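Ticket #4471: structure export looks truncated?
Reporter: QA, pipeline team
Priority: medium

Steps to reproduce: submit the single chain below to the structure queue and open the exported record.
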Amino acid sequence: MFFNLDERKYYHRNVFNGLWKEKTENRISKIIGIKKNIKNLKMKSWLIQRGRFKGQDTRLTNDIVNIDSLIRFDYMGSAEFEWGALPKSINRITKDWDNYRVVGTGIKDKKKRELFTICNKNRVEDTLACIDHVSKTPYGYKEWCDMGWSLSTIENIFSQPSSGYNDFWWDIENDWMACVGIDRINQVKYAVELTVNEKEGVTNK
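Actual output as written to the record:
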């Protein structure tokens, strides 16, 4: 379809601007809704460590010795993620490991794969509400969290990074971990269990 100059001006002024205004108003409306919802959250995320699985095999455990051997962590750029912040979180998790469970969040990516979490069984409801919020909210954290973009639960108006999105997220304050797929979360569970056994002096291999 071709337009003359006057028609193009009319289209830009009335159609394009109208669509842009509608999208902008929708986004503002979502942000207002998010701000209202966050007030009701008992657990709120601030420090979320991003990472991605090193290997392609979702069931392989032979090369796993701890969480660092399984996940390649992003450099976050903030002091809050340095100075032993991750080891402190894993220490809290391993000390209370008997109370940790694998839980399905009910959140699915565009391939219909479910997001799973490892969290404290005594805080499941709060953790699930927190993760649901993170999966739908692109801002409000110390550093960028790409969970929503990776799962396609957030509309992406930007192009995908050349390196792709991450597939593992770890709240190092509330001590939950999340990833897509039961096989992947079981690998994470296995990695943490090895650390638990090491601290207890138990040998699995």
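Status: closed, not a bug. The export was complete when the record was re-opened. Leaving a note from the reviewer for reference: Confidence is low (pLDDT under 50) at residues 7-12.
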